[in-house]
Write a structure and sequence with these properties.
Strand order of the largest sheet: 1-2-3-4
Shape: globular
Number of strands: 4
Distance between the termini: 15 Å
Structural class: alpha+beta
Helix content: 25-40%
Largest sheet: 4 strands, mixed
């Protein structure tokens, strides 16, 4: 896998499906947000977005952000910075994603 750090949403997301104005408005909601980490396949397909939450995070805003990513087919994994996972916990969380259930 390839792990990318601090990637702006504008680099990997686009809004489509509405009018041009609706798409721009929707994209404007998240374009300046940054993913802490993107977990990608060797072919650079995004497998998951990993977020490290600290006290500055707002649960309602995080929920909306996660929903936007989910709409794009990107699963979000969240960990608190005060309780960071072990290597084994990270491997387990990523290995349990739907992406790996479909890869033979």
């Amino acid at each position: 896998m390839i792990i990318l750090a601090q990637v702006s949403f504008s680099q990997f997301l686009e809004a489509k499906g509405g009018t041009r104005k609706e798409d721009f408005s929707r994209f404007a909601e998240v374009r300046q947000k940054v993913a802490d980490f993107l977990v990608c396949s060797k072919g650079l397909d995004i497998i998951a977005c990993v977020e490290l939450d600290d006290r500055s995070h707002n649960k309602e805003k995080d929920k909306a952000r996660d929903a936007f990513l989910a709409e794009a087919g990107i699963h979000t994994i969240r960990w608190n910075v005060k309780n960071q996972p072990s290597k084994l916990e990270i491997q387990k969380a990523i290995g349990e994603l739907e992406y790996f259930k479909n890869v033979n």
